[in-house]
Amino acid sequence: MSTETPSKAEPTIGDYQYGFHDSTDNYTFKSRKGLDHEIVRQISAMKNEPQWMLDFRLKSLDIFFARPMPQWGGDLDQIDFQNIYYYMKASDRQEKSWDDVPEEIRKTYDRLGIPEAEKQYLAGVKAQYESEVVYGSLQEDLARQGVLFTDTDSALRDHPDLFREYFGTIIPSADNKFAALNSAVWSGGSFIYVPPGVHIEFPLQAYFRINSENMGQFERTLIIVDEGASAHYVEGCTAPSWSAESLHSAVVEIVVKRKGRFRYTTIQNWANNVYNLVTKRAMAYGDSLMEWVDGNLGSKITMKYPAIYLMEPGARGETLSIAFANKGQHQDAGAKMVHCAPNTSSRVISKSISKGGGRSSYRGLAKVVKGATNCKTSVVCDALILDSASRSDTYPYIEVEEDDVTIEHEASVSKIAEEQLFYLMSRGLTEAEASAMIVTGFIEPLVKELPMEYAVEMNKLIELQMEGSVG
Amino acid sequence: MATLGIIDLQVSVESKPILKGVNLEIKAGEVHALMGPNGSGKSTLAYALAGHPKYEITGGSIEIDGTDVTGLDANERARLGMFLAFQYPVTIPGVRVADFLRHAVTNRRDPERKEGENLMPMREFRTELKERMTELGMDTEFARRYLNDGFSGGEKKRMEILQMAMLKPKFAILDETDSGLDSDAVKVVSEGVNRLSGPEMGVLIITHHERLLEFNKPQFTHVMLAGRIVETGDASLAAELHANGYATVRERHPEEAAEELTEQEKSLASV
Ligand SMILES: Nc1ncnc2c1ncn2[C@@H]1O[C@H](COP(=O)(O)OP(=O)(O)OP(=O)(O)O)[C@@H](O)[C@H]1O
Ligand SMILES: [Mg+2]
After folding, report:
1. CB distance B116–A111 less than 8 Å?
2. Cα(B251)–Cα(B261) distance, rounded to whole angstroms?
3. By residue range, what is the domain housing residue A444?
4. Which ligand is in closest contact with the Cα of B55?
5. pTM of the predicted model, to two decimals?
6. Which of 3.30.565.10, 3.40.50.300, 3.20.20.70, 3.40.1190.20 is the CATH number of B3-269?
7. Is A112 left (phi over 0), alpha (psi -120 to 50) or beta?
8. Is the ipTM of this complex over 0.85?
């Protein structure tokens, strides 16, 4: 792809004028640690971005600095923003050797039956995952229908007008501190445009184009589903994403136009050192349907509340979320539904599991603005707590400015029933197997919504989380 | 020959003594009936044999083929061939019958299997499951349903027998498996029991009814009263109890009958 001869010299700061931006060769570039205007300028220059994007980044950085740290949700005080690399080319992540990958992680890959090539990518041993064969033919097929499916950096370059029309409009930089951070230093992510009336039958997976930088720390995804179109996008995978980087802060912006349908499925299993602070929001227009299916495992702290703004009458929003908080983990996850128009409806189903001292919180907002009459919103949260050291909380926020609204909120907290455990054990299952089975059953209503291979992996992962840790 | 030995077994629930020294020996191929008035301790014996953690063994022992299994948990006992068809099977939402059973059957057939190791091949398991379901007159659709979720009383009982048929235990305890079944279903269940009981399996049938015992004629009938087996006879004893109730048994065992009474009084007094 590169049209330039790579420089042999070890690039340093200031070398960006040599134009590394358009290359997938093994250039190395790493910004120095820390965060300031200069770093942001470098990132933008590295990518050879237009002026407006640089301005946007710089403005966002100022907002990030100006905003206080959120004092609710997880404890974020230990994040040292000046001790982080904010930009690294994919090829730089190749420095690890297979022997450096922790035993635990390798064992998990084996148990999940992840193919060798993929394992190496996931563990950061290999930066490139060769999926050109599958990807290539699918790409052609999609391209013929006018679908754009690319990484976000390429989209900015190749589809500047479409990009600029939507970028940052669903989630402005000023939305929250971490959205501002992402806006300042974003890199990678997916860009999808589905033209009017086009139905994509198979799930679009980040896998297909995993060789770009989509799994970066500050990925930025923008998806536009035009009128009457439909698609399903799947991001992440059940294998733990092992990473030396400890801060992940993504932004995902989605627009679903009239009569469109879109589902965004995420399965994430971050390593235990990771702060996963993600802003996800969709705007759903007349008679459209937007669905978030969100599975969160791992990480140190996850704060993630996928939102749906129901903008016009007939729009529907649905969020299904699963959180598993194990030892040392805090999953603060939930959903936001904002009814901005009459005759809109939303549904949230959330299931959480806490174990080994883990903590999971459901934090959700149901909002109905003035004038949005005849809306329906329902929230069901079920929490399963596996031992007395673990914890679960529910924080439902309800803001309603209309009378003519149906609101349902149900929450339940339960323990694994001794009688269920005994029943399964009396059939020859170990205590861990029996608990895993009960937990798997608990989240089954959500797991069955996942694409087949993810569902299988998800169940195996639950088994793994439950193993050798009970009794 | 496989033998289940119950030796002077004493069991407490929440520190309250329920079984006060039960002795019983069941060999493969034998059918035993266990009868006794409500609350005499029959289910307690069943749970204690299966290894329910709430049923604390305070004295005596349980042996399988001469090995003391008193200290083993329910899962280990199941792998050695113990099986309890529950009087009240629990519901486990979200867990499909087939998934659960494949796991259980794999462990039973390979007692050394460790967590996470492969399950028996899907195809082999399915074929077998289908055969057993057909024999028990069950719609194969049940394999895909969540365990006992929304099952009728009779369907739950059949599901217990299906599990028994798949697990092929050495010793099966059927705790009132016949209650709540219509008479056609009792027949199907007893055929299922007969098919297995042969020389391979010993059975302890806990029941208040005659039908199951007609099809599975017991060589031994035991009567439990206030936590002890007070009489053992043959099939005719079961018939006599059905005809006359427990009055004559109580007359023949005034001490236990008295204990039964005092317990009732105690529990009434505490209300
Ligand atoms: N889990 C428990 N908690 C408290 N008491 C119990 C428990 N299980 C059994 N018991 C008590 O032990 C005694 C024996 O009960 P058990 O269920 O063994 O009787 P049973 O012979 O099976 O009666 P039935 O014919 O009604 O099934 C009863 O007094 C009962 O209340
Ligand atoms: Mg009973």
Report:
1. yes
2. 13
3. 418-471
4. 1
5. 0.80
6. 3.40.50.300
7. alpha
8. yes
